[in-house]
Design brief:
By secondary structure, the protein is an alpha/beta fold. Helix content is about 45%, strand content about 15%.
């Protein structure tokens, strides 16, 4: 009887999950175009004027999608600049063939391929959190593509501890997919709001953020599993690239907050700025992890300053 009850509960949860997937996907449909690259199909939203100088490529962090970068910062930048927003492989409406293609190295190659197909030769990259490691990797492996790099509360170095026991379980074969396809979505509906509020601290999460950022897309099993793989493989990935950071020659601006409880500025932003030759570090008091939401005007001003210097340097070289 106990076994039958468990099986029945799992079947009902699996059915509820499939229904929930349909509801979520209808609520948050894709907003851009799909670009096929080796190992993935990437969802790309292209905003702003096409002839406004250097384009800006924006890459989101873990547990999110391109909408987390679009509002308010991406829309603000797109008033004057071409802005390319990309769902990282496996996130939002982007897919990837292999869940294991979770490292910054592999995702950097996929994004470089997509930009090539878009005809983007060089761009300023704006990266948040998990994508700090990704932005650094693009600058290392594809330096011709990176005119400048703006990093918001970036992950760049190994850290003590893990990434949450639940993520480690979800990334485990068999049991991970079993949980993802049964309890993750129903449970996530209950916990998403409070989890998002914690990431914003000490700032207050804007009203409607979970809805406006399409965060419920994360609760779909295939994305939740991909996100877990991204997180559990990240520490080893950054450990492998730390020794190369001194090779980065593009101008870099890092904006982080001292009280960030999600990604420690002392572990990541400060050491990275100390290694990279052309790095500018801005640490703001009372700023949490969601830099692009808390101080979009500051970020925009730093991006414009960087682009101005890049243009001047190019003119002098010509």
């Amino acid at each position: 009887m106990i076994v039958m009850s468990v099986v029945t509960a799992l079947v009902l949860l699996a059915l509820a999950t499939q229904a929930g997937i349909l509801v979520v996907q209808r609520a948050y449909p894709p907003q851009g175009r799909m670009i096929a690259v080796d190992g993935a199909v990437l969802h790309v939203v292209d905003l702003g004027p096409r002839n406004a100088g250097l384009p800006i490529v924006m890459l989101h962090g873990a547990s999110s999608n391109l909408e987390a970068m679009r509002r308010p910062l991406g829309d603000l930048l797109a008033r004057d600049r071409r802005v390319i927003l990309i769902d990282r492989p496996g996130h939002g409406w982007s897919t990837r063939v292999r869940r294991q293609d979770s490292t910054p190295q592999i995702q950097a190659r996929m994004i470089d391929d997509a930009l090539q197909k878009l005809g983007i030769d060089r761009a300023v990259f704006v990266v948040h959190s998990w994508s700090g490691a990704l932005g650094a990797r693009i600058a290392l492996d594809h330096p011709y593509r990176v005119a400048g790099l703006v990093m918001l509360a970036p992950v760049t170095h190994p850290w003590r501890g893990g990434v949450g026991r639940y993520n480690e379980i979800i990334a485990t074969p068999v049991i991970g997919p079993l949980l993802a396809y049964t309890i993750t979505l129903p449970l996530g509906y209950v916990l998403t709001e409070s989890g998002a509020r914690n990431v914003f601290l000490p700032q207050v999460m804007p009203d409607g953020f979970v809805r406006d950022s399409a965060t419920p897309l994360l609760l779909r099993p295939r994305e939740f599993i991909a996100n877990a793989y991204d997180l559990v493989t990240l520490k080893e990935a950054v450990a492998a690239q730390v020794s190369r950071y001194g090779e980065i020659r593009a101008p870099v601006t890092i904006i982080a907050g001292e009280p960030d409880k999600t990604v420690s500025t002392g572990i990541h932003a400060r050491p990275f700025a100390a290694i990279v030759p052309n790095a500018k570090l801005i640490v703001l008091p009372d700023l949490g992890h969601m830099v692009q939401n808390a101080v979009p005007d500051v970020v925009k001003a730093e991006i414009e300053t960087m682009i101005g210097k890049i243009v001047q340097a190019q003119a002098a070289a010509d």
